[in-house]
Model the fold of this input.
Amino acid sequence: MKTFTSDYSEDFASELMSNKAAARVPREDAVTDLANRVAQMSDSGAGVTRIDLERYMGRNDLLRINYLQRGVNAAKAVCRIYVPDLFGAQGEWGTGFLITPNLIITNNHVIKDKAAATRGFAEFEFEVDVNGRMKTSKTFSFLPDACFMTSGEELLDFTIIAVADQSEDGSVALADFGFLRMIPTLNKIDEKEFVTIIQHPGGGEKYIAIRENEVIKIGDSTDPLKDKRLWYSSDTATGSSGAPVFNDQWQVVALHHSSVTESRIVDGQKQIQLNDGSWVDENDLARFSDGAIKYIANEGIRTSKIIEEISLQHMAAREHRFPLIQQLLDDVNGIITISGTKPKESIVLGKDLERHEGLLENAFNTKAKGNIRDKKYYDGRSGFDDNFLGLHIGLPIIKNLKDIAPVDGAADHVLRYTHYSIVYNKVRKMAFYAAVNIDGSKTNSLNRGTDKWFKDPRIDLNIQVGDEFYGSEPGSLGSKGYFDRGHLVRRLDPVWGDEATSILANDDTFHWTNCSPQYWQFNQGQDLWQGLENYILYNTDEEDVLANVYNGPIFADDDQKHRGIMIPKYFWKVVVVKDKNDRIFSSAYVVDQSKWATNIPFEIIPTGDFNHFQTTIKKLEKQTRLVFSDIIRNSDVRKDKADKNLRSLSDIDHPRR
Done:
């Protein structure tokens, strides 16, 4: 993040230096001030002892041992923020921290607007463990349409933004990091007390500034803008913008905003002093490193003033108010405390938060974009090959044309990826079907790595269900939600060809268009969805198989809603293979996930008339309202036969035996 400094007159800079050197001046109403300060200490949750009072009066520097553990707890809610430029080639770093279970605050000069937020992300636990080894950090997408509020850098320089409740790889819930409550009342800090700053200097790992950090000045009654600020001497650096500034009780007293440089005016031109004593023109400051510049103080925006501004903006918004801001204000003002937390307590641990859908359950009805690439990224994708098996066997025909999502640049509305294609249902917000070509002779086994799912910019972003749907929920197991991000086209199926093509195909499977909510026991069961295709394709002596695989959900009017999405009870799969004698065989299957969904809080528990079975192409066409090619229909191994219930995979009429 760029070096950001506040522009003050020589007189004010001199005042800061004078305050820094002066002893504490007793306040006019010392008794009342002390009483208020003690009340704040008590509210923080840290406890108050005689030592705390002596330290406040400047007669003791001791801190209770819980100061260390509370600092570790507070640090969990602090993250680094990255905002790439418009081209994604480079970007800038800052610091931010959670102020509710779903909101992060940072500086406006870190995230200026919604567009910047859409490109950026928050990264937690970019830090070392007790042995000095880097932890595995977790990144989270911003949801600016779920909540975004800002104040310009020349004013209060803050931005508040909603964050996805699940990490981009799906492994961690945002709620696990807790949050730092923004206490709106005064008397959390006094001049000559000390502050501590947790930050990501230079966009690097997490650090703490714990020495030489005395408060120099609080507010300025002669200047309304300066009155919203607080000045302190502390070590900060580029990238620390947006860091929390704490008192000894780990209450946030300010949002770190900028540094104040030693400056002077010469012939009407402002000059900045360097640490070597030389002076440079303000316009030339960018040529020098942050460490070369002489700073006389650091500046933060007072917490109480930020809450005042949030309240004013929220009131002015009227019908466009964000529910997440209302939750913040209700909590900090003691009206409705966030579930699972103690009123006024400054550090809220993740384990204390109740796991509930909360105010983000409608996030997928906003324009939350998540990860997204430029449309040019998809240039040259040929998708599913109709002639892959040596005969023209194309994509199924959809009878319900009005529900097909339009695709930018494709008149047939087919989303083409590497070796597979998808036709998307804009009403049900998931694919009608996915179709993939598999060449067993050219397959590559790539490690899965870290899952990172993307929305496809070629169709409406608002109809794509992303991370906002998945995540920890009440009654689910630990941090796992009820549903897995179920691949329709399996990750490894299109991964064949040369290395570059295989890598691209692997990455292409991680699109939300290729995802359908599958109850996790169903998705991960080797005898169910995952195992079915493995058995059909590879339970044979002939491994170099050529195959077309089609699959998708069966949409029914009585499907139950969860988080605003109708969850399909059944999924279908059609496998078409060519044997070594160039003969074509097809088979069709329906698998049922409803029996595994008994603990999900649907309005009605979904139950079906069947479980898993092998069916016919002709019957499947009636259930899905799709039309398959004549070749697929005529090569069906169970053509004109009744459905066959599958107790296990060994019951399958194998198309290649």
Q: What stands out?
A: The radius of gyration is 30 Å. The domain at 5-360 is CATH 2.40.10.120 (Thrombin, subunit H). Residues 303-317 form the longest helix (15 residues).
